[in-house]
Amino acid sequence: MPLPLLPRIDRTYVHANESGALQPIRTERAFIRDEDFDFTVRWVSSLALKDAGRVSAALRRDPDYNPFLPPEEDLNVGPVGKHHLAVLNKYPVIERHLLIVTRAFESQTVPLSLADFVALARVTTELGGLGFYNGGTEAGASQRHKHLQWIPATAGSSNFDGFTARLPADVPGDVTFDATLPWRHCFVRLRPAPPGSDCALNGATLHQAFHAACDALGIAADRDPMLPYNMLTGGGWLVVIPRRREQHEGISVNALGFAGSLFVRRPEQIEVVRRIGPLHLLAAVGFPA
Fold first, then answer.
1. Which of 155, 174, 213, 277 is surrounded by the most beta carbons within 10 Å?
2. Which residues lie below 8 Å from residue 105, measured CB to CB, with a gap of 6+?
3. Which pTM does this prediction carry?
4. How many domains does the chain have?
5. CATH assignment of the domain containing 166
């Protein structure tokens, strides 16, 4: 029987640091308050390393090179159910950042399946934290191979609670919107699972919530390929945000932008985000509310 996830993650993290499989990280962080929302903007040197690594791989290998088939051995945390592996992010900004990768190739644009949500639930049920997904390149995905992601609920890792805390406690039908947000979105409240519920039940709850959000937004959740979107789940909520572009004024945005965390490739871009305003930036890469 495999070890619980957290010891496996920590053991792999220590080994990957020692072996050099994890890339060095330099960050410069700024805090920006936009209306009633708090955002963290980080200059992350590893983003430039990641870009350089992708270019190098393209030069050395065929264009279909896939870093997840197989994943780098030193980064492989191990199985998460029958169909997925947990792999450390090679270029982490947040410690223990996991990629939840399908064992067999699936495109990042195919619909999220029940099996995907069961795998995500295995992680969130044991560890809490924030799960998220970048559905396609326009939504911030950097790899074609399907991978969900997870980060722990540590100070400064995200501010998803800053968005969900504003939502009403009693939501008819569990589906709601925040009228103050200037981009299209749909939140779904996750009803607490009975004590002792297994990951299959929790995964089914996430899967149903995802379909409810897509239905409310007029998105076909079973279309292949799906239209670009971000999905985040944590703290008893799931949200889906349709996307129309990956960046605005040179600032790339992935799902974590909608949890209050933005990342830039050059330190001077922090001031670009400040000038644009995080809320306007997120509205520009999404669709008008």
1. 213
2. 66, 69, 145, 146
3. 0.93
4. 1
5. 3.30.428.70
